[in-house]
Design a protein that fits this description.
Elements (H helix, E strand, L loop, with lengths): L12 H15 L7 H25 L5 H18 L3
Length: 85
């Protein structure tokens, strides 16, 4: 995986944008304990785990889940800064 984001084909741009929307709904929620924020966080985590297990592990077995998770969250923050609502 390159330093600027997930490798080509690992996660699509549409998937990343959807993850960024979910990330925004819980990371920057007015009430992070609200049901909506918790549901967004749960869906975000489920999607990342699924992507990791189905795409990253087979193609990049040396990449840890923690690294992949961190990279996705960093990409989401960067995407949200570049594309304010």
């Amino acid at each position: 995986m390159p330093d600027d984001g997930p490798s080509e084909g690992t996660v699509t741009r549409i998937e990343l944008e959807e993850l960024a929307q979910l990330f925004d709904r819980f990371e920057f929620a007015f009430d992070p304990l609200a049901r909506e924020a918790k549901e967004a966080e749960s869906e975000f985590e489920d999607r990342i785990r699924g992507l990791f297990e189905t795409r990253v592990v087979p193609a990049h077995p040396h990449v840890s889940f923690a690294l992949f998770h961190c990279r996705i969250k960093s990409w989401c923050r960067s995407h949200l800064r570049r594309n304010p609502a």
